Amino acid sequence: MTAVYFFAAILAVLLAAVLVAPLLDRHPDEGPPTTPAGRLDEALDALRELEFEHETGKIDAADYRSLRAEYAAVAIAARDAGAVAPTEGGGDVACSVCGVRLAPGAKFCSRCGTAVTERVGASA
What we know:
The protein is mainly α. The protein folds into two domains: 33-83; 87-124. Helix content is 48%, strand content 5%. The protein contains three helices and three strands. It has a three-stranded antiparallel beta sheet, with no helix packed on it. Strand 1 and strand 2 form a beta hairpin. Helix 2 (36-55) packs antiparallel against helix 3 (61-80). The longest helix has 20 residues, at 36-55. Residues 85-91 and 118-124 have low confidence and may be disordered.
């Protein structure tokens, strides 16, 4: 009978630890990103999630249009603020749609799937 009480006490301590651990988190999530690249990544992630939620019927058309316009404006502003800066070498390939730098020899953007057509820093 003592073993049952001992086992129950251990389970109670473990349950309390699981419930209290998130409350004692001393490293809260970081605030909004401060770099243009961070803001661009966050906006593109939000757009992807919004597309998914709209396709699955979780968001109606009016809300979808307004949120998409808002996130797209943030992404464009971040891109224009220099989220992807040209490099000195001129050999880096960048996506013409989302601006992410791609690995040498990449034929498609790993983020948005667009075919790679531009070279960043290449002379015209």
